[in-house]
Amino acid sequence: MVSRLYAQKYPPVLLCTLAALSWTWGPVTASRSCSETRHVYAEKGYSTNTAPLTQISGEHLRLCPQDYTCCSSQMEETLAHQSETDFLSAIDDTSQFLLTTFTQRHHKFDEFFRELIDLSEKSMNQMFTKTYGRLFTQNANVFQELFVELRRYYSGGSVSLTEVLSEFWSRLVERVFSLVNPQYQFSDEYLECVNKHAEQLQPFGDLPRKLGLQVSRAFIAARALVQGLATGRDIVNKAAKLSAGAGCVRALMRQWYCPLCRGMPSLRPCHALCLNVLKGCLANTADLDTEWNNFIDALYQVSEKLEGPFNMELAADSISVKVSEAIMHMQENSIATSTKVFQGCGSPRLAPGRSRRSPKESGGNRRPFRTFSPEEKPTTAAGTNLDRLVSELKERLRPMRGFWVSLPHTICNDKNMAADVTNEDRCWNGQTRGRYLPDVTGDGLMGQINNPEVEVDMARPDVRTRQLIMELRVATNRLKHAQAGQDTDFMDSEVEEGSGSGGGGERYSDDWPGYRPYSPPYSKPPLNPQTPIKPPRVRDRTGSKWNRSKGRSISAVSRPAFFSLAVLFWLSVMVTVAPMWR
Questions:
Q1: What whole-number distance in Å separates Cα of residue 320 and Cα of residue 374?
Q2: Distance (Å, rounded) from C-alpha 249 to C-alpha 88?
Q3: What are the boundaries of the region Disordered (predicted)?
Q4: Under-70 pLDDT residues of the chain
């Protein structure tokens, strides 16, 4: 009865038609073509042997939504690896600006500073040979040793600039004292006595202190800058070489290649989805931000010092000038100096074939010392100058601040990586085409507590990132001390000496424009036998009387360096294991 009524209401022809259509619609949805997906997959260099021709059921999928799909299990696994490769390539490409800048600037500054030292030595040799003739060439080893030690310091050697310059002036005072008193023969012991009283007599006036202040500040800043640029290069190299965790890879696959598996290869992930995924993947890297910004600021400030009062060009240029002025000062005051030395050290022996004459008479027939004018100095052919190098560096340093914390934004702003922020309704939201609703999370490890895309273990900070943070702190500390003219390797010795001389806050009065003009050194009281004198220096008896022992105690150098390394090690351990104590 029911069938008869049904047949009367719906004719057989209509029923057959509906049945046929219902059978057709089901397979149509499931057999949608996968040609676009296969084409994109092949373009990436993969075989399409496992790629379906039409959509199949997605029950086998582990990462993408289990709807109809154009991806086999093997394709999904392959594309997951591809998403990790794309992510690491994006990090590498984005950080290339940093790496290139640090590498090129390090090379340019290092080449420039080394050339400055070479030109300074060449200038001194040329001018002193012209000015003093054989007097210089016979004593050239004193000046050569100075530049050997300056180069060793700049190259990172365990050399104290204070000791280097003190040794140079000690050797020079012996040479010049012998030259202004050629009628006498001085033993090693007598010259040691001359050296003991040199600090009180100040035979070179105030010039050793002025040169020491200028050279130390400039060399410390130059070395710190070059080392800082090398550190920046190494930090970027290490930070950019990431390894994506399993949770990160799953999220990357879902945002970049699940649309491909759904047969919509041109659909880009929503901008907010991209940010959440990358903030989760780069949570530890973003924690570099604070120390990275401090490091960049310190580099910037040291470069400004080199451009201003710690000018390396000026310091290198002034070595020969101030040494020449010092020699001239000693010659002009040779009578008073020699008289005081003879009173304190006794009368020296006459040289064979010489008669006793006064210092004034003995110097009358010799070629006088003189200073040379700036016009006589050879010009540098470096092809650039410090102002230009510093200006270019500062221009490149400015955009580096905040690099690591803004890295997710930089990558997601690429149209090939994510949809435009204005295209919120026509993008991939992780499941289908449509608006992405979750909020964008904060920055850094602690900002990922509510990240809906990547599960981040906030209780276990990345050891590698903590080590990079410690390296940045050490480098920043060195740069900040360099801004004050202090070398962290010799803080215990050189800071005390600098504070004792009263030169800690002094600027270059006679070399830097805008400061007070040069004033003559203050006079010292007469030699007093009760005044404490410098301890004798150890001589190398195996060589000539001018040779100094090259064996210096390294304890003063190694102790600060060892202490810094020990502190760095224990801080790294504490930062690593701290979460485990909770």
A1: 11
A2: 11
A3: 343-384, 483-551
A4: 1-31, 353-383, 490-582
Q: Comparing C-alpha atoms, which of 77, 49, 88, 17 is closest to residue 407?
A: 88
Closest CA to 306 of 391, 208, 396, 210: 391
- Coil, strand or helix: which one is 376? helix
Q: How far apart are CA 559 and CA 155, in angstroms?
A: 20
- Closest-CA residue to 163 (of 479, 478, 535, 497): 497
**What tokens appear for 218 in the block?**
């400039």
Q: What is the pLDDT of residue 402?
A: 95
Cβ distance 438 to 272 under 8 Å?
yes
Asked if residues 113 and 229 have their Cβ atoms less than 8 Å apart, the reply is no
Question: Which amino acid is present at 210?
Answer: K
**What sign does the dihedral 55-56-61-65 (CA atoms) show?**
positive
Q: What angle do CA 119, 153, 396 make, to 5 degrees?
A: 75
Q: Tokens in use for 459? A: 């209780």
| Site of tokens 């290069």 | 233
Give the CA angle between residues 467, 468, 469 to the nearest 5°. Answer: 90
Q: Given this model, what pLDDT does residue 462 score?
A: 87
Strand partners, 54: 33
What number of other Cβ atoms are within 10 A of residue 63's Cβ? 19
Annotate 149-158 with b (16+ C-beta within 10 A) or e (fewer).
bbbebbeeee
Q: Is 69 helix (H, G, I), strand (E, B) or coil?
A: strand
Q: Which amino acid is at 532?
A: P
Q: How many residues does the chain have?
A: 582
pTM of the shown model: 0.76
Bridge partners of 33? 54
pLDDT of residue 526: 38
Q: What is the distance, to the nearest Å, from the Cα of residue 122 to the centroid of all Cα atoms in its chain?
A: 29
Q: Report yes or no: 540 and 548 within 8 Å, Cβ to Cβ.
A: yes
What tokens does 493 get?
A: 């010795």
Buried b (16+ CB within 10 A) or exposed e, 175-214: bbbbbbbebbebeeebbbbbbbbbbbbbbbbebbbbbbbb
Tell me the residue type at 309. Answer: P
Instruction: Please give the pLDDT value at position 348.
Output: 84
Task: Give the torsion sign (CA, 60, 66, 69, 74).
Answer: negative
Q: Give the pLDDT score at 545.
A: 34
Query: Do 183 and 358 contact (CB within 8 A), yes or no?
Result: no
Q: Are 504 and 496 in contact (CB under 8 A)?
A: no
pLDDT of residue 354: 53
For residue 304, the one-letter residue type is E
Using alpha carbons, select from 101, 102, 401 the residue that is nearest to residue 227: 102
Structure tokens at 436: 């992405």
Helix (H) or strand (E) holding 185: strand 184-185
Which phi and psi (to 5°) does residue 539 adopt? -100, 155
- Backbone φ and ψ of 28, nearest 5°: -65, -45
